[in-house]
Amino acid sequence: MTSAVTEETWNEFHSVVNMTSRELGDWLRTQAADENTEQPPPHAGHETGRRVLAILAKRPGDLTEADVEVMQEVIDTVRAQRKPELEPEAGDGPWRHALMDIGHDPLKPPSESTT
Question: Whole-model pTM above 0.85?
Fold first, then answer.
């Protein structure tokens, strides 16, 4: 079952998710690697980050209700932790990494986003 995502939600999601699919995928695999891992597992990284990665590969008409819920969750999380204009902002490592786990790099301007 698919859900029509509003244009506003689609645009805001793609504004707050300022990492490309490749950047996010690389980040999730890097975060999952440790000294005992030769290669990161295929389902590496934060669960929401993996969902964001899947959403980035979809067209609006292909989104499910669950996808739209994840999109709204990501929007709400980023907006709660960032200023509305999303200007580049340094912060401590854990804060930045938590945002990067869901596709938002606070040091990267949102205008650089391409999926």
Answer: no
